[in-house]
Design a protein that fits this description.
CATH topology of the largest domain: Rossmann fold
CATH superfamily of the largest domain: P-loop containing nucleotide triphosphate hydrolases
Structural class: alpha/beta
Number of strands: 7
Number of domains: 4
CATH architecture of the largest domain: 3-Layer(aba) Sandwich
Length: 442
């Protein structure tokens, strides 16, 4: 998102939200004085404070902290009046990054200040994508601000981390969350005193939100909508309204990735009840059923594999059915495929086999195709020996012709090693018999 192209900003650089923007967006701090919970970063003369202001020096930053602690807000404040472009590592690619860098270089050459490039969830960028940022950071073609919820020592490449200032944000304390809720209830940007909030309801929201300011404001907005203008938010009303709010929040928040991860790992782990639980959470949250179906197709090939070849057929049929009938009936199809795959025998040997073969090819061990296997259907092929000596498998006993199929460079390679799980046990027996007929030994 390019804030200069999309919307106006305040004097401090924070985007001016639309009137119908979510409460968490409308209440985003506009100055350092409104930021709560990060006193260790906001002390006078601290590195962060020195980076804020019209005359501040440019420096790339990595902001590390839990969700909802103010990473995006601090990025806006550091950017100030400079051009600010926000990318999400979940959806952006190397082409998007290079586009921002080239645009900033052009602007710098015309006498403008460099663009501030904010990359949310930078840990989701691959090493190659992160490496592409190095020249721009080193030459100050852009000021990079990366936000991550994971330890940068493990999730951000060393050269990029060494060229950036690492700032660690702490989880918000309960009093910080309480202060944010009270401000949002009274502030003109927020609810402007339109609802009353009982103390028990407020404390319930504080507990449920944990250390996450964004979640707290999302919950407050949900319960305020349920109460209506002039209404009172009671503890009972808060509990009812917050159940739906938490599901909706998780769809677009970090929980989205945690739930799909838990879903896949539960199916892989053969726990059908856990698999259906996480499927239900995604269905209730309104997750795109086609996304779930695609993940099941991948899982069927990667984790069930040839231990049950029917698994891929079931998963693909489920994907087709969901696209055809949609929701809510699609939940039944997804549940059927989920249960089948969770209870199916598991094997990832095909997945491992193709990766081993790819590794050999990339390492230069492809070799030349044996002459007897080369195409012999063109004039002159026989003269140069193509196809000469080829043994036709259907003419051989058992339908297996003993001849060399792999190139010399990998003649002894073994890529596929079946397990004894499900149908793959049968394939393993066949493989052993075929290797004997081919004269190959393990």
């Amino acid at each position: 998102m390019d804030l200069f192209d999309a919307q106006a900003t305040t004097a401090s650089g924070v985007p001016e939200p639309a009137a119908n923007a979510p409460l968490a967006v409308r209440m985003r701090p506009r100055t350092l004085d409104e930021v709560v919970g990060q006193e260790h970063l906001l002390a006078e003369g601290s590195p962060l404070v020195r980076l804020i202001g019209p005359d501040a020096a440019a420096a790339s930053i990595v902001l590390w902290g839990p969700p909802g602690t103010g990473k995006t807000t601090l990025a806006y404040l550091v950017a100030g009046s400079r051009r600010f472009v926000e990318l999400s590592a979940v959806t952006a690619g190397i082409k998007d990054v290079r586009g921002v860098i080239e645009d900033s270089k052009r602007r710098v050459s015309m006498g403008e200040r460099e663009t501030v490039l904010f990359i949310d969830e930078i840990h989701r960028f691959t090493r190659t994508q992160q490496d592409a940022l190095l020249p721009a950071v080193e030459n100050r073609w852009v000021t990079l601000i990366g936000a991550t919820t994971e330890n940068p020592s493990f999730s951000v490449v060393g050269p990029l981390l060494s060229r950036s200032l690492l700032l660690t944000l702490k989880p918000l304390a309960e009093e910080d969350v309480r202060a944010l809720l009270d401000r949002a209830i009274e502030d003109e940007r927020g609810l402007a005193g339109a609802v009353e909030v009982e103390q028990e309801a407020r404390e319930h929201m504080v507990r449920v939100a944990g250390a996450d300011a964004r979640k707290a404001l999302t919950l407050l907005e949900a319960v305020a909508d349920a109460a209506g203008p002039g209404g009172t938010i009671t503890a009972e009303l808060a509990e009812r309204a917050m159940d739906a709010a938490l599901v909706a929040y998780d769809k677009s928040g970090d929980q989205h990735y945690d739930v799909i991860s838990a879903f896949i790992k539960s199916v892989r782990g053969s726990d059908v009840d856990a698999s259906l639980h996480y499927l239900a959470r995604m269905v209730v949250a309104g997750e795109d059923p086609r996304f779930i179906a695609r993940r099941l197709v991948i899982l069927a090939a990667e984790d069930v594999g040839l231990a049950d070849p029917q698994g891929l057929v079931v998963a693909q049929a489920a994907a087709d059915a969901v696209s055809f009938i949609g929701m809510p009936e699609g939940r039944i199809v997804l549940a059927e495929a989920t249960a089948y795959l969770a209870l199916a025998p598991k094997s990832n040997r095909s997945y491992l086999a193709i990766d081993r073969a790819i590794a050999d090819v990339r390492a230069g061990r492809a070799g030349t195709v044996p002459p007897h296997l080369r195409d012999a259907h063109y004039a002159g092929a026989e003269r140069i020996g193509h196809g000469k000596g080829y043994a036709y498998a259907h003419d051989a006993e058992h339908g297996v012709a003993a001849q060399q199929y792999l190139p010399d460079s990998v003649a002894d390679a073994t890529y596929y090693e079946p397990t004894d799980h499900g149908f793959e046990r049968t394939l393993g027996e066949r493989r052993a018999q075929i290797r004997r007929l081919l004269g190959r030994t393990d």
